[in-house]
Amino acid sequence: MKINRSAYAIMAASLLTLTTGCSKTENVLGSQPDPLAVKTSPESVVFDWQEEYQNKLEQFQVSADCSDSSMFDLHDVTNDGIPELIISPSEDVSAMCEVYTLIGNEMEKIAVCGSSGEFDYFPSILVIGYEYTGEEFTVGEYQTYTDGFYSIDFDYYTNMNSASSGAVIRYEINGDGVSLDEFEERINAYQNEDSYKIGRKYTFSDESIQYAIHCSESWSEVLTDAQKKKFREKLSDVLDKSSSADSAFELADLDGNGLPEVIVSSGSLEEMPVSVYYLEEDGVKEIAAKSDENGCLRLDIKNGIFYAPDQTGKLTSWSLSSDNTSSFKPSDSIMVCGRKYLFTSDNIKLVLA
Questions:
Q1: What three-state secondary structure class fits 21?
Q2: Which of 84, 232, 331, 341 is deepest in the core (most CB within 10 A)?
Q3: Interacting residues of 23 by C-beta distance below 8 A, sequence separation 6+
Q4: What is the DSSP string of 102-160?
Q5: Which residues pair with 176 in a beta bridge?
Q6: What's the pLDDT score for residue 28?
Q7: In Å, what is the CA distance from 329 to each residue of 17, 257, 290, 299, 307?
Q8: Do residues 199 and 71 touch, judged by C-beta distance below 8 A?
Q9: pLDDT value at residue 271
Q10: Which residues have a Cβ under 8 Å from the Cβ of 294 and sit 6 or more positions away?
Q11: What value, to the nearest 5°, has the Cα angle with vertex 62 and ends 58 and 66?
Q12: Half-sphere exposure of 83 toward its Cβ, with a 13 Å CA cutoff?
């Protein structure tokens, strides 16, 4: 399904200079104020961490540990305004993420955590963790951030799901038996906080690495103040009218023209409504979409098409730039998008400052 853009967008697209991952947007209307012209291209924005993170990703990409199910993520899990690099080797139940950051000029591993190649992040309290539930047991752990590194606060185990089989029910914290009240009190201290899953955002393709490193964290420098204001006003209005506690949002360039869109996910469950907001000359427009099994959209970076598979694997796809999505088949350059930030007033102001 193609989404029609303004006449300007069509004209500008023909004049873009293509680069790996994203393309540059120029002001083609000369000295006239142009609501679609950005301050700079995302590729021109430089961060200290880019070279080391890219080197790490490329090393993993050609290693024996990299498989078709390997993915990675960039996310600030230390609340210092700088994203960490998160490598997810696979989606096996036992697969844990490795979290890296740049300390000085050196890459440092600051955490190993997760199950099925992802973990939960609790931004308000700087905690990461995971929980895995088998047929008759549940295990998990929580890690807290102290002195530059994450370390285990406690792990837990219970076989409460085996009650029907006549097993003796146990609740354990750090391997020690505790009462149900003690168990719930310790776990609920974290589980009652807002969280979301991270770790599996980008596939390990050249296009994905280029986009993640050289585009994904640049939007604050790319958008003009006027563009940010338009997005802030629209998202604030949406938040006031229809947000839920599980809503999230993210900026991403869905058509590769260097001007990002905003994706708002209404929840983390399958086929939840997703809205895409994009700029046109006369304001912010909306595309109504639906989500994958995690409440996200998936962007094919190589083809500039975003899509969502249903339970049967059937794809519904959309495009801001392509006429033909009916025969679309995803490439190996995929980004999962829509749930990078909790959809709150504070985050809207932070991301679009």
A1: coil
A2: 84
A3: 16, 17, 41, 256, 257, 258
A4: EETTEEEEEEEE-BTTBEEEETTTTEEEEEEE-SS-EEEEEEEEETTEEEEEEEEEE-G
A5: 173
A6: 47
A7: 25, 21, 18, 12, 10
A8: yes
A9: 85
A10: 197, 268, 269, 270, 336, 339
A11: 100
A12: 24
Residue 3 confidence (pLDDT): 60
12/152 Cα distance (integer angstroms): 51
What is the Cα 24 distance to its own chain's centre? Answer: 23
Q: In the β-sheet with 97-103, what is the strand arrangement from edge to edge? A: 106-113, 97-103, 84-88, 71-75, 202-203, 334-337, 297-300, 305-309, 315-318
Residues 93-99: contacts with CB under 8 Å, at least 24 apart: 93/132, 97/73, 97/199, 99/128, 99/150
**Residue positions counted in the chain:** 353
Strand, coil or helix: what is 177?
strand
At 188, list the tokens: 């609920």
Q: How far lies 125's CA from each of 31, 115, 143, in Å?
A: 47, 21, 11
Residue that the structure tokens 């790319």 belong to: 222
Within the chain, how many helices (H) and strands (E) appear?
Answer: 7, 23
- CA 182 vs. chain centroid, Å, equals 34
pLDDT value at residue 244: 83
Helix residue ranges per DSSP H, 6-47: 7-13
Q: What is the C-alpha separation between 69 and 59, in angstroms, rounded?
A: 16
* pLDDT beneath 70: ranges in the chain: 1-32
DSSP for 336-351 reads: EES-SEE--HHHHHHH
Cβ contacts of 289-292, under 8 Å, gap ≥ 24: 289/316, 289/318, 290/316, 291/265, 291/267, 291/338, 292/336
Taking each helix axis from N to C end, the angle separating 50-61 and 206-214, rounded to the nearest 10 degrees, works out to 160
| Pair 114, 121: CB distance under 8 Å | no
Radius of gyration over every alpha carbon of the chain, rounded to an integer in angstroms:
21
Q: How far apart are CA 315 and CA 333, in angstroms?
A: 16
- Outline where the chain has alpha helix (H): 7-13, 50-61, 180-191, 206-214, 219-222, 225-242, 345-351
